[in-house]
């Protein structure tokens, strides 16, 4: 059972991890808490945005879309390796997924293939939306991957989690394919290295 990190502690944790941070507008008060609970938090979810262009991508993650209000994540990680903080509290990123996966994340064991939509992920996961077209061809620059690793490690370190607490959206639900272009196992290996 983990209480969500405070905005202040998040900034300190990201700074300690060497993350380049951009605080977007009123991110500390920007959330969907009126829609449901936020916490206890159990893990971190990685996404791709299917967009290109840093400004458009950050604005989309902050504002959301007509059918899905923002914030769409806690942070938007652009190709230059900046972590733009876009919300603090409940965010519309994870949707529903498989409770068996959540139980595996809590136990920090490898997750089963998702096959149910029975659990609200927005309550339990931090989310990072990462600027990428998600077509399998759009490259993931080293700076961006490094920022994903560092931002994830910052939250893992704060909560005493290991890299098993970091999953991709595609590991949460069989309705999604993100992130595409690298494997979550490769990303978790880098996070494990970073946490040593
Ligand atoms: Zn996603």
What does this structure look like?
Helices cover 32% and strands 17% of the residues. The chain has 196 residues and is of the alpha/beta class. The protein has a six-stranded mixed sheet with strand order 1-6-5-9-2-10, with helices on both faces. A two-stranded antiparallel sheet has the order 3-4. The longest helix has 18 residues, at 142-159. The protein is globular. The chain binds zinc ion. Zinc ion is lined by residues 47, 169, 176, 178. Zinc ion (ZN) binds next to loops.
CATH class membership: Alpha Beta
Summarize the helix and strand pattern as letters: HEEHEEEEEHEEHEHH
State mean pLDDT (0 to 100 scale): 98
- What order do the strands of the largest sheet run in, or round the barrel if closed? 1-6-5-9-2-10
Oligomer: single chain
In angstroms, what separates the terminal alpha carbons?
A: 23 Å
Strand-helix topology:
Blueprint: H1 7-16, E1 20-23, E2 43-48, H2 54-63, E3 64-65, E4 68-69, E5 75-77, E6 82-85, E7 96-97, H3 99-107, E8 119-120, E9 125-130, H4 142-159, E10 166-168, H5 169-172, H6 184-195
Parallel strand pairs: 1-6, 2-9, 2-10, 5-9
Antiparallel strand pairs: 3-4, 5-6, 7-8
Helix pairs in contact: 1-4, 4-6
The structure holds zinc ion.
């Amino acid at each position: 059972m983990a209480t969500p990190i405070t905005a202040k502690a998040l900034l300190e944790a990201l700074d300690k991890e060497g993350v380049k941070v951009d605080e977007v507008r009123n991110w500390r008060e920007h959330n969907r808490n009126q829609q449901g609970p936020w916490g206890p938090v159990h893990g971190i979810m990685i996404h791709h945005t299917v967009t290109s262009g840093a400004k458009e991508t950050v604005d989309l993650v902050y504002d959301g879309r007509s059918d899905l209000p923002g914030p769409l994540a806690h942070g938007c990680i652009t190709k230059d390796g900046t972590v733009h903080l876009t919300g603090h509290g409940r965010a519309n990123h994870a949707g529903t997924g498989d409770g068996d996966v959540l139980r595996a994340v809590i136990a920090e064991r490898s997750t089963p293939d998702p096959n149910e939509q029975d659990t609200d992920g927005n309550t339990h996961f931090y989310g990072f939306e990462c600027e990428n077209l998600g077509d399998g061809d759009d490259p993931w620059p080293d700076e961006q991957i490094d920022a994903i690793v560092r931002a994830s490690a910052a939250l893992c370190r704060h909560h005493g989690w290991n890299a098993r607490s970091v999953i991709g959206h595609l590991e949460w639900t069989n309705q999604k394919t993100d992130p595409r272009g690298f494997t979550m196992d490769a990303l978790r290996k880098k996070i494990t290295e970073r946490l040593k």
